[in-house]
Amino acid sequence: MQKYFQPEIECASLEDMKKLQSEKLVAQVKRVYDNVEYYRNLMDEKGVKPEDIKSVDDLHKLPFLSKADLRDAYPYGLLGTDLRNCVRIHSTSGTTGKRVVAYYTKNDIDLWEDCCARAIVAAGGTEEDICQVAYGYGLFTGGFGLNGGSQKVGCLTLPMSSGNTERQIEFMRDLHSTIICCTPSYAAYIGETLKEMGLTPDDIDLKAGIFGAEPWTEEMRHDIEKSLGIKAYDIYGLTESTGPGVAFECSAQTGMHINEDHFVPEIINPDTGEVLPVGEKGELVFTNIDKEGFPLLRYRTRDICVLSREKCSCGRTLIKMAKPMGRSDDMLIIRGVNVFPSQIETVLLNEGYSPNYMIEVDRKNNVDTLDVFVELNPEQFTDTVKGVSAKEKELALAITQMLGIRPSVHLVAPKTIARSEGKAVRVVDKRKLHD
Ligand code: ADP
Ligand code: ZN
Fold first, then answer.
1. 97: Cβ below 6 Å to ligand 1?
2. Across residues 379-396, what is the average pLDDT?
3. Ligand 1 within 6 A of CB of 148
């Protein structure tokens, strides 16, 4: 039996899980109240004392923390223990504004790597595997997190980091990598490069990929699975809650199991803060119940998703979260309509285009404009030189049907849109320049 498939936790009954969470939460709230002045002040303002928290059912009594609090308290205001007990710092990738930093004790790193190890095992990883980690190493959590998890499972670990794509493929072939971990946009790029090198999935030994750190669609999953000849598994996490491995996908590939023994999830209405029942869509909130360095309680992730307690075919009972299709702050409001970039991605891939696209939003004469630039595949390019404008119209119509607003579509030559080796930047909102 795999050490990192832990049925006593991963398949625990709801009652046992709540008991475990409650014990940890009660101790954690007390520790945070004693050690973190910033949060103690928030609790005092709300009139909540540690004694008021007797089980996870009392979670809703605690105040929220938001990214603004993290920036306010930067750099050390939310430290949960003496700095001398911390052994590492990571930082968010700064996708949305100023970076925040998180601290880890030795124990925090250990638990985090356990979570990543569970993810690798759920994707079929064993000590027989050769795991190529092509997430960036450094302040970003991706590389180190999966690296630690891979070693815990006993996989032979290749700390490639991201970039140098042809070399990634060379190593993959020479060393017979069986698992790859990177962002989905980088996986798509590796697939594209493989083809350009005149190779097919039969020339490599990969069987699984563990992809996360950014939103990606089901269509993108199919695309990657085909181009690399693998099963593609989703993994979710955020620096504030430790890093990748907060939640991971199993063989069912229908949402990610949350490591609830460490992270207690809630879904709230982002406008009112009201807790919503399991199954309703809203903002995901996490409470770290055993982190020491950076013990965030009720942290608002701004990720919009749905939780589910439905029985999973893999046997795990850990609650599942649906793929978050973007953060509330990734949502574009164009001519009053809410648009997530992932909706556009779905249409593009369904219509047979490449996942290389760019969305540009601007405001001209007080009207919002939406321009979608999409690369043609090399085959489409030669086929369609004449028919480009007809194709653009067709695609604009398909996007209009999805969004309810009409974009201008521009089909561009292959290789004209920058590829991503980490988190892809898909949107340029020029309206911000005018504000
Ligand atoms: P930043 O906030 O600077 O991007 P992180 O690198 O910590 O910092 O990124 C965490 C965020 O990345 C999450 O809050 C979420 O929005 C996104 N994310 C991570 N994994 C996934 C995933 N599997 N699917 C969709 N979004 C994801
Ligand atoms: Zn499952």
1. no
2. 82
3. no
